[in-house]
Amino acid sequence: MSTPSPVPxxxxxxxxxxxxxxxxxxxxxxHAATAVxxxxxxxxxxxxxxxxxxxxxxxxxxxxxxQMRAAEKAAARDTYQLAxxxxxxxDEAREAVASWAKALDRINRTxxxxxxxxxxxxxxxxxxxxxxxxxxxxxxxxKMRVDQAEAACLDARVRLAGCEEGTQSPESxxxxxxxxxxxxxxxxxxxxxxxxxxxxxxxESIVTGDRTALELAAARLAEFxxxxxxxxxxxxxxxxxxxxxxxxxxxxxxxDQGHRFWSGLSFEEARNVIxxxxxxxxxxxxxxxxxxxxxxxxxxxxxxxxxxxxxPRNMRDLPTAEELAALPTSIGVDARAFLAAQxxxxxxxxxxxxxGRRADALEQLWNxxxxxxxxxxxxRHALGSSSG
Length: 388
Description:
This protein has about 400 residues and is an all-alpha fold. About 65% of the residues lie in helices and about 5% in strands.
């Protein structure tokens, strides 16, 4: 049997075996807690549907109306008195009395049945409400356990990343160049600056559209993880997509000042208009334009302008319906500024919090963040210019 070739950086991973085991355990607990919470959420959702149905049945249950019952009895009495007055024999008189008694019995039985049906429907509503309240308390409790478990998982990943970065030096990387080794030995802190200066970092190049940087970073990362460059590139692409989407959602947008519409607005005004359109249901998505292809009409834009504090009557040459459909092509996303503000040093806790629920799909990347982060914070030129 042949012996498998050692994976570059394996010694760093071995030195962090305990930290890695802790990540596996804590994150497994987080996954289990999430599954329990999702079950509780679905149960509460079902109970809310049951409550609506029970309330509907209660509304349909007429119940006993004393005034209606009195009117029905009065009508039965009138019918009896008329029949009694017209009776010519004792048998006819007795028949009139019997008919009256039957009518009264029917009225009383119907009233009793209605009362029972309404009481039953009311009890059903009360029962479902009680069960729902207990289910909602359980839902809240499981959510707290999820939050605690996810925090423990993230803390374990922070410790693992710190361990890997502390035990893995650039000298051990097969393609590390002199500039990387010098930066590591000098202890220079690397971060994304709010104002671009100096050579771009790998992450800066990636989020500004440098596909070659993405491919080269994936190839470099594969040397440490033992996975294929294609797998690592897919994970980095998902990271890029999550960063861009989060940046757009947080309002880190770029507007083409050569565009006829945006040129007449300040940055804040333009961002407020996009925000107002989103509240009206017209969401800008970096990858697809208007979400689900639902573009605003000129009337929708006028309403959004009003919500943004602008008077559309004072604006000339507003976009037509056709121009509005193409408006997203004039909007970009400043993902670099987003990272500089939210996670400049790319620490795993800050990045995960910045991405929110979008971070859930990147578990494989987080588990190797101690190897990923140094590559992303390296200088772009150190990766070279060809992925082949």
